[in-house]
Amino acid sequence: MFRNLRMYRVFTKWPETEELLSEVLSNVAFKPCDAYSEKSAGWESPSDNPNGPLCRRLAGADLLQLRTQSRVLPVAAVKEAVEERVADYRERTGEDPGRRDMRRLKEETRDSLLPKALLKSDRLHALFLQSEGVLAVDTASAPKAEWLLDHLRPALGRLQAVPLAFKSPVGGLLSRLFLGKAVAGFDVGRECRMQEMADSRSHATWREMDLDDATIRQHVVDGMRITQLGLMYDNVMSCVISEDAVISKIKFAGGEAEDVTDDEDPQMRQDAEFVLLTGTLQRLLKDLKKNLEGYSEAGPAAPDAS
Fold this sequence. Notes:
The structure is a single chain. By secondary structure, this protein is of the alpha+beta class. It folds into 3 domains: 6-71 and 118-163, no CATH class; 75-115, no CATH class; 170-291, no CATH class. The chain has 7 helices and 12 strands. The chain has helices spanning 18-25, 75-93, 99-113, 142-156, 170-178, 214-221, 266-291; strands spanning 6-10, 39-43, 56-58, 61-72, 118-129, 134-137, 161-163, 186-195, 203-207, 225-233, 237-242, 247-252. α2 crosses α3. The longest helix is centred in the last third of the chain and has 26 residues, at 266-291. It starts with 5 loop residues before the first strand and ends in a 15-residue tail after the last helix.
């Protein structure tokens, strides 16, 4: 289900029930692109039932799904259509179009092609852990996560959220683990990324390597810092954690939900995978808080506009 987690602490009151959350999300429900729109986005049911509620609450966590639909206009096709209009303009006027006419021809071309363009949909999942007040978006990309937050704000009325941070730097914990310090629940995996302290453009990446090799560790001893580190958490979940607390490449040992067979209901499989993920994430956040002195006390700079 989720392969990445970019997390935010939420300071706005969250709807108390699945029904209330689904109701507020319906204010920004997904609507397909109309003929002359390039993009449309909104909330849809995360279940297999398209008419189902717009969220699903299980074991103290909410599952949300944002759908973005775009009209696909191939650059080459647009260019060719513009060239045809320019040629027609020259034939009618006997001269090349000026800057203003060229802009008009491009706009007319776009407007004529949009209704014929193919539609493409992308879906972005998010989860909210009620016990932690943490919203996690299934992306490693900050702009994609902000896209989801931008559509959650009008649904909730307002949303005060800040990127998840701890009192002590995550990078410090990653370095201690990398250099061999034992921390309960965490085992070093086979992937890491380092960066020169004085030059952000200078970095090194190791994948599928034994990271306890002395020659690899020496880079950190000599001054490079760990920016990403592959870990096995609690002998259950492998992942890569970055110094800004983004989790990527999530994979569960033995598969997503071992107690659900292939012939069982897809909704049961999704529910089992979601409960496994959220339960593991809750334990991981508690262990990170324990080792990093808790969450950062910094909150939103100021309430956002409604």
